[in-house]
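Exercise: predict the structure of this protein bound to cobalt (II) ion.
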Amino acid sequence: MANVKITETILRDGHQSLIATRMKTEEMLPILEKLDKVGYHALEVWGGATFDACLRFLNEDPWERLRKIRKKVKNTKLQMLLRGQNLLGYKNYPDDVVEEFVKKSVENGIDIIRIFDALNDVRNLRTSIRATKKAGGHAQTAISYTVSPVHNINYYVNLAKEMEKEGADSICIKDMAGILLPYEAEELVKELKANVKVPIEMHSHFTSGIANQMYMKAVEAGIDIIDTALSPFGNGTSQPATEPMVASLQKSPYDTGLDLNLLNEIAEYFRPIKEKYMKSGILNPKVLGVNAKTLIYQVPGGMLSNLVSQLEKQGSIDKFEKVLEEVPKVREDLGYPPLVTPMSQMVGTQSVFNVILGERYKMVPSEIKNYVKGLYGKPTVEISKEIKEKIIGNDEVYTGRPADLLEPQLQNYKNEIKEYIEQDEDVLSYALFPQVAIKYFQYRQAEKYKIDNSLLDKEDKTYPV
Ligand code: CO
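Solution:
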């Protein structure tokens, strides 16, 4: 039994979950020194959707945000989330791009990189783990937690052992859908603690209303670190709120030792920011409620709402229940992939096609074909011959590490955006989000030009004519 540590997520997953990642750097900066004083295990500040949102919606350079945060957070470790070989994008990148991205992330201030893969294929984590350690960072791997007939304790223990062998400095249970039940968590954490040596962290979402109870059982079972978000951006589809978790563990052997008064002061700072986003409509009160449906269907809340909007667009919302029944069947056919990006979208779309067209796999999106061909990694269980034939005919299935098929790309990316490069990191922004990055670079150039103009104006005025 030992003190439980807390990773604070308000600067990443908290606002990603509740306000679509719209918090601006200028809204973060004034409170960083106080956050640094709390004594958190880490502050999650980067990765996930933050990078894309900075460039796409906020006209901010994500690298500059990271450097500004690092400058003010001198004592607490900074953490980011990375989707293995996908980095922060939606496709596999070659190793040279992954290595450069990880190196630059650590150079610009990241201490801990949480690395996950949608299929829990450890080969997709390998390059990021090695690059993180080489750069002097802490490589945390994350288990994408899901429920299926094959995802049992044994499966997770073996996966964790494999991750440890691959070099993981710690392991996170990533319950992105918020469906890990308290007593299952207790058993899972106990078994992981008994079978691997590295620290274990718990990450969940309050979406279905059970994450607080789940955290308590995980704590009692020996979890080392839990992820929470300060109350203005906690609960709902975000992490369990920090202050009630800290209070719940007081007067116990697991006491976090964090100061509730200080946490409250910081929460007071964020409250008007939350109100602002509520008024503007970016914070939809819907996400603050409890969505028990995810417990029944065992699919993430985001996937449910995507299905609704897909069906509404096609005027087929009456087929919603049928599609929900089809989801577990498609998942079984595809070897039980965890329902996390991009698999959740892919399984959802295929289920809609199967129901609407009245014939299963009559139409198959190219992403699903590529997945069946092995280009995303290894399915949890092998896909049956029958389904394979239905989806890819006689095409061959690749069984190697997907990134081994990719040629180095970094130099090409550099050549493509020569005229915009102001820092090495720009090449990586471009590699991840080409159109969005170029638009941002053009904005940045225009801004610079404006500033130069205003300087000239001033000089003209002070010049005695
Ligand atoms: Co999350």
